[in-house]
Specification:
Layout (H helix, E strand, L loop, with lengths): L1 H18 L21 H6 L5 H16 L53 E3 L6 E2 L11 E3 L37 E3 L7 H23 L6 E6 L2 E10 L2 E6 L30 H13 L4 H4 L15 H12 L5 E2 L4 H12 L2 H4 L4 E2 L4 E5 L11 E6 L13 E2 L7 E3 L18 E3 L21 H6 L6 H8 L3 H11 L2 E2 L4
Antiparallel strand pairs: 1-2, 3-4, 5-6, 6-7, 8-15, 9-12, 10-11, 13-14
Helix pairs in contact: 1-3, 3-7, 5-7, 8-12
The structure holds heme C (2 copies).
């Protein structure tokens, strides 16, 4: 490993020298991610992921970004608060806390120095816990997303202009509810993300193909939007080469019958299912957690006015993406008789309707593109990752992705609903079906880590999952424990 690290460093240094290393500002410490500073997208594209040496180089460069504790010399933190910017909590312009120079805020991001600070637990079930890179986080690592009010003391304060989660007309009374109008999210792991991204891309291709078919069909034709056995609603040709969309559980973009393609993008990443690729998620993560602005979003503009440009380059985001999609997938441990029985129950009582045990890809190759086009995963492809080389298996040309999810959004009922009051691309009670692979190791559960056991997580299901949940509650104590025994065979990789 050491040799490989050195090799990557030498490559990076050579690239640095060729381009001229960035001048250090006054702080003699310099930036923390200097090792990848001169990396170019052309260099990244010149590497071939099918060559084991190049594969390791790309992965280690990406891992370096994922584990770098960024500092102010890298552009960590937002620029000076600007009261003319609106909204005042917008990324790049967040207020400062106790004169800390807009480095950390903790609420609404600016909450860490490295990605791995939060994605750090590989198993919470072992003693001691297994720590590592790209794992889950506990409650202390949760993201507190865009609140403008957290009433932790359940006060009467009239300055709190609204009552998130309450009937709007209720007077503000101490009622045991700490009113809160943001999101609170538990960090999932990044294992097996390559398989998830390829499934989503193939599903997007299928939906786009059905749309194309509908556009040229005879008026009145209704086509079902189905991919890999998952139904996402209907598209109807309404004449004049126009369609009407009637969607179910796909993507965060509102259907627009005049521009239908963007709404037909499968978005598995983030607990709300808001992002179509790992890179798409990562772009937001860089800004939210670190105040680090990707060049691919801002060009040479110092949008946060912190005196740094090129905070994270296209090439650095490419290797970070590569790292994200080459993490090995979770594994299924041996099943005893109880777990076998639990697996049958899981299917019979309706859990598997959403938590689909396995979905298969057509190809084993995950296309990596830059710039990415959400509606067309085959546009601008610069490399293809062979998922069989990262631990996926499959008999045919594709790979099996044993994810226990349909990658679809579901309304989960009022108990699980968030009280977020900001712009909502996905409704408060809607989440993408949690992937249960690895679940034995990843407590706490549910989007905000509220469930400390698997039993609690199942019991909290409502909305579209109410019937399956009620079926579970109606099982005998022995059957319940068999079902949980089955879930406990689903492990994170390496254990
Ligand atoms: C403060 C903790 C924290 C830090 C730091 C952090 N993350 Fe996360 N990460 C989260 C949380 C919380 C979620 C779930 C967010 C949601 O559902 O909206 C998440 C989700 C993700 C996902 C989506 C995973 C999935 O399967 O849906 C990816 C990818 C990811 N993070 C990558 C990164 C990268 C890359 C960085 C560094 C640039 C990073 N994270 C830094 C907390 C963190
Ligand atoms: C209608 C679709 C649907 C059905 C049916 C369903 N689930 Fe879920 N499940 C979800 C969604 C969506 C989430 C994420 C909810 C959240 O994060 O708040 C989830 C979360 C979970 C979690 C927590 C995962 C984690 O990583 O935190 C477990 C465990 C789980 N489900 C088990 C089950 C079992 C067992 C059944 C059958 C009794 C079942 N589910 C039925 C959609 C469903």
């Amino acid at each position: 490993m050491r040799g490989k690290h050195l090799c990557v460093l030498l490559v990076a240094m050579a690239v640095c020298l060729a381009l001229g290393a960035p001048a250090l500002a006054q702080d003699p410490d310099g930036p923390a991610h200097a090792g990848t500073a001169g990396l170019t997208q052309a260099y990244v594209e010149s590497l071939n992921p099918n060559n084991p040496h190049d594969f390791d180089t790309l992965r280690l460069l990406g891992q370096a970004i994922f584990t770098t504790p960024f500092n102010r010399q890298d552009g960590l933190g937002d620029g000076p608060y600007d009261p003319t910017e609106w909204p005042p909590f917008a990324l790049g312009h967040r207020p400062t806390l106790q004169n800390n120079d807009t480095t950390f805020l903790r609420v609404n991001g600016l909450d860490a120095q490295s990605c791995n600070e939060c994605h750090v637990i590989v198993s919470h079930a072992t003693r001691p816990p297994t720590l590592g890179i790209a794992g889950v986080g506990g409650v202390v690592q949760q993201a507190i997303i865009r609140p403008t009010m957290i009433d932790v003391s359940d006060s009467f304060d009239d300055r709190m202009g609204y009552l998130a989660g309450h009937t709007p007309d209720l007077p503000m009374v101490p009622d045991g509810v700490a009113d809160y109008n943001g999101r609170f999210a538990n960090p999932p792991f990044l294992f097996g993300s390559g398989g998830v991204e390829l499934l989503a891309k193939e599903m997007t291709e299928d939906l786009q193909a059905i749309l194309a078919q509908a556009l040229v069909a005879t008026p009145g034709t209704v086509l079902q939007l189905t991919s890999k056995g998952v139904d996402f609603g209907y598209v109807t040709n309404v004449g004049y080469q126009q369609v009407e969309l009637d969607l179910e559980g796909v993507g965060p973009i509102e259907p627009d019958d005049n521009n239908p393609a963007p709404a037909l993008v499968v978005t598995p990443f983030g607990r709300k299912g808001e992002n179509f690729s790992v890179r798409d998620f990562d772009r937001g993560a860089m800004q939210f957690h670190f105040g680090i602005q990707p060049v691919e979003l801002f060009g040479d503009d110092d949008d946060d006015n912190d005196g740094h440009i090129d905070e994270v380059t296209e090439a650095e985001m490419s290797v970070l993406h590569f790292f994200g999609v080459t993490n090995p997938p979770p594994v299924q441990g041996p099943k005893d008789a109880a777990a076998h029985h639990g697996e049958t129950l899981f299917a019979n009582i309706g859990c598997a309707d959403c938590h689909r045990p396995v979905m298969t890809t057509r190809s084993k190759k995950l296309p990596l593109a830059f710039p990415e086009v959400p509606t067309d995963p085959r546009a601008n492809v610069y490399a293809q990752v062979d998922l069989k080389k990262v631990g996926f298996h499959g008999a045919g040309p594709g790979v099996a992705v044993p994810l226990y999810s349909d990658l679809k959004h579901h309304a989960m009922g009022p108990r699980l609903a968030e009280t977020f009051e900001g712009d909502k691309p996905v409704a408060n009670d809607e989440f993408v079906t949690a992937r249960l692979w690895g679940i034995a190791d990843t407590a706490p559960y549910l989007h905000d880590g509220r469930a400390t056991t698997l039993y609690e997580a199942i019991e909290q299901h409502g909305g579209e999952a109410q019937t399956a949940r009620d079926n579970f509650i109606g099982l005998s104590a022995g059957d319940k424990s068999d079902l949980v025994a089955f879930l406990k065979t689903l492990h994170t990789p390496g254990l």
